[in-house]
Fold this sequence. Notes:
This protein is of the alpha/beta class.
Amino acid sequence: xxxxxxxxxxxxxxxxxxxxxxxxxxxxxxxxxxxxxxxxxxxxxxxxxxxxxxxxxxxxxxxxxxxxxxxxxxxxxxxxxxxxxxxxxxxxxxxxxxxxxxxxxxxxxxxxxxxxxxxxxxxxxxxxxxxxxxxxxxxxxxxxxxxxxxxxxxxxxxxxxxxxxxxxxxxxxxxxxxxxxxxxxxxxxxxxxxxxxxxxxxxxxxxxxxxxxxxxxxxxxxxxxxxxxxxxxxxxxxxxxxxxxxxxxxxxxxxxxxxxxxxxxxxxxxxxxxxxxxxxxxxxxxxxxxxxxxxxxxxxxxxxxxxxxxxxxxxxxxxxxxxxxxxxxxxxxxxxxxxxxxxxxxxxxxxxxxxxxxxxxxxxxxxxxxxxxxxxxxxxxxxxxxxxxxxxxxxxxxxxxxxxxxxxxxxxxxxxxxxxxxxxxxxxxxxxxxxxxxxxxxxxxxxxxxxxxxxxxxxxxxxxxxxxxxxxxxxxxxxxxxxxxxxxxxxxxxxxxxxxxxxxxxxxxxxxxxxxxxxxxxxxxxxxxxxxxxxxxxxxxxxxxxxxxxxxxxxxxxxxxxxxxxxxxxxxxxxxxxxxxxxxxxxxxxxxxxxxxxxxxxxxxxxxxxxxxxxxxxxxxxxxxxxxxxxxxxxxxxxxxxxxxxxxxxxxxxxxxxxxxxxxxxxxxxxxxxxxxxxxxxxxxxxxxxxxxxxxxxxxxxxxxxxxxxxxxxxxxxxxxxxxxxxxxxxxxxxxxxxxxxxxxxxxxxxxxxxxxxxxxxxxxxxxxxxxxxxxxxxxxxxxxxxxxxxxxxxxxxxxxxxxxxxxxxxxxxxxxxxxxxxxxxxxxxxxxxxxxxxxxxxxxxxxxxxxxxxxxxxxxxxxxxxxxxxxxxxxxxxxxxxxxxxxxxxxxxxxxxxxxxxxxxxxxxxxxxxxxxxxxx
Length: 922
């Protein structure tokens, strides 16, 4: 499906149709030339998007994973080279940047393509530069000369802007890229692509929105029950009446499993017989791979939401003797792995478990997760893409756009740990994972397999599989770094205006538009109600307000007296004794009853007497049965042998109750309660005012009152809507104002100007940017050695995977320990300032990597460092590279020729060694 582009506003239908035909023809000269680079025909959505680019429009392309969206980004590269301009190709993760860089180098040569990530800087002035989105954001704020001649920015995986940690960067780039630059936004299929396209049109100008929900390789859904593979859906009907329904076999098995679990639960409770074994046990991982191999469904990616689970799966396959490769493939795999690891020292390879890694590779099995050394992950990606590796066990990070498709995707569970709790997979996550199934040009169909297990309901799987799209929601919010950069570039007022152009505010405003429209409709209705309530004798709305005040006061007084009566009733129940005859005043338990047990202390809400009624019923009463104090009306003797469980005893006592108590008592001594309003002065005054009002004597008074009551109810609803509108309007700008208030209080802004300290903050791009700047200003690191500095700065980038209540981490003694303690105190002061200004951006520094960073910077061996840290090689390398990135920013922010600048450089040189220095891009 394609949607008309948003550039068609103001055109006639004929003009719009002509533009559409031109775009879908693909006959533009640049596009005709570009099409010769491919050995397959471009799809209609690719042609339409490329032609829109050639016609001078920006584009948003929303299409399923594996459909070929990147062809449109590559056409932007082609246009830039043909026109002598530049194209920046941005990706959300470094692995994607490295992969795209390699693809473009193969096509255009290394002299025309550059790479800029936090780890690598290669040919940054080339006409085509691949980079992470953060790098481009930093260049925009710095006013980099590299931006000169930029004509296109490709934003791959632009739906990443929904990410709550990093998503704001995408919006910053879209808002701040020069107007002359065209945006090529490539997104997964989202349900609100048109809304996103409207926003792009608003902030970027002409933007064509192309949505295609067709998968080039059909995807079939299955469930694996034991070792049997079932289709998730079955078709019924023929032709146009054909519909897909949940497989009834799976439904029956689910019902049977629930019944079986209930039986087992009863057996466990009874403790008599052992529970029956599960009928359908989840198969072992090696069994799953063997089943897929027999069905011809390899290569497969099995998503396991645990790094340890991925590694364990590989070991299980090795122990089971699985071998999925030929002798020739095995030899080729070893040769490739040895070539890619030739620069890694043998002792480091031994520490990293290279032997087991290669043995698994040679059998066609591998893990893929963030805990692996980046080089090892790249080897897996390369071999899997070449068809050498047949089974990969991966965490969900593999689904983030890396070009690594399979014939089959297996999902073990439908929930995962998100760092805080176990949460269910969303339809969007399920779509992203299963989107890896089906290799274009290789497979005629892809397969998604969900493994049957506890808590895996076929209906839930069908719900996930049947929801193809999900909404794209902004996660944008201002940061301290963003604020000083914006104010420094365009001033405070213009900065507020720019932030109000964010997709977050656009979405909030869309909601506000609907609410505001309802407010306007309500206001029109209120005018009509007020007119209908008019009275020729006077102001009826004033009279109606007086009636409401009277009603409110009567209700308030009634509640007060009811509360007092309940308290009095509770006190009276405490004085009851066995044998007291009482009158239960109302409800289905009303009538005479004799107290068997006063029930004092049985409940927290008051006494609960056990009574026998005249109908021989034994009941436990409560305070709710007595709206006012209860007084015994008589007493009767209860035999000592009386048992409430004995029917004859109950009959005899009920008979005594009926014969002993006089008829007038059985009729009930019901006292009429005093009127709630008999002695209240305010009520008396309000009633007098009402009687004296001119409209009180109107013969249509009650008709007017009905319209006035409608007015009152609608006015109350409208006021609630107004508060909701106010809460959503300018929400981003209000947050920006609070951020600026913090910065002014701390001296980073002076009115509408950025101070020297503010300019330094503007060069720090980190989640704890303000704490970093404050540490620099306070001189906390000025006298540290290089290893001590590495330890301290690590606390600003590292986030432990351990729970908060884990054992306090080890830190270096001496100056580093003092500096870390000072940083934590400084964070506490900043946290108080944030609370005063109603913002909360800064997390507490994490000391969990300080000792490891210190030892690595001191030159300790890898095996010793990893042994003490409990980190995987991949986590260690990633943490060090994040630390190197911030140390580089500290170097830039420190005064020229200062001791701190020299120390930071020395720390970077000391840490950029061994496994940290290995890179897939030379």
